[in-house]
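hey can u run this one w/ aspartic acid bound, need the structure tokens asap thx
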Amino acid sequence: MTSFVPPLRKTNPHLPFGDQRTAPWYGHDIISVKEMSRKDLEYIFGVAHEMREMVARVGSFDLLKGKILANLFYEPSTRTSSSFTSAMERLGGSVIPINEVHYSSVAKGESLPDTIRTLECYTDVIVLRHPEVGAAKIAADAARKPVINAGDGIGEHPTQALLDMFTILEELHTVDGLTVTMVGDLKFGRTVHSLSRLLSLYGVKINYVAPEILRMPAEIITELDEKGVSQAQYDVLTEEVIQSSDVLYVTRVQRERFKDTAEYEKTKDAFIISPDTLTHAKDKMIVMHPFPRVNEITPGVDEDPRAAYFRQMEYGLYVRMALLAMVLGKA
Ligand code: ASP
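ok here u go:
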């Protein structure tokens, strides 16, 4: 008897009729932004735009009817998990949420590859958040279905960076020529690791403002240097930096990544953005934050039209709808 060898994902003859096997992102994993080009981004944002219009017009539609998403979260999440759920449901698909890993077989010691190989028996695409860098790649290597990285420890958060880029484009209509200032925990913040890499595809200047112990990792600075990106580091947020910024990207100090609580306490309120901070900022500057925020932006800023962070969350829905449709061969 010959044993059954599962066919590779891209040549799987058992795929349901109607999938567009020629769609450019069909069957692809989304693990890192490192392989993405400017052309990829334009394509994703074109689809995200269409999603935005469709949601405004009809709310939900049946593009992914019959498809099932596994939403597997080993770390807390509000926006990423609920926006992926909303994205799938607005496209007519359904979701198996696994947030309480303590109640799944993970609590019995099941390995990540085994969990992934189980879930892909029941679903068409897997969204994974995990505390370890590289976990999404391990999952993708184990899976025949597409895996989307929803944050791997302090590594990357590619879908957040895509929605951040989409936000900048929707709000400011260009990325070329902008000055983007990232503030806060640039060492442990995975969103800024992915975002700086995507920004490097455009002609931008990036300012990094962080306490010494929370600086942007040297390997990312070097990577961007090699691409000729203009970068500058600061340990205080000067008036000059604020005035020159088109985007102020604020991040939370990532308490859960600190081994030493005293170090966290020392840095947690290093930068607090208040209405006063924005007094001399450009009228068209936008303030972004991946959220959750703790103390780094005071609620007083919320009323300022430059506060783009709630709109940023909404853009995330359209980008995630686009990505799901693309990897499932429908866009
Ligand atoms: N929600 C973002 C993340 O999962 C940012 C944060 O947690 O501070 O990385």
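Residues 151, 157, 190-191, 252, 254, 290-291 surround aspartic acid (CB under 6 Å). anyway lmk if its weird
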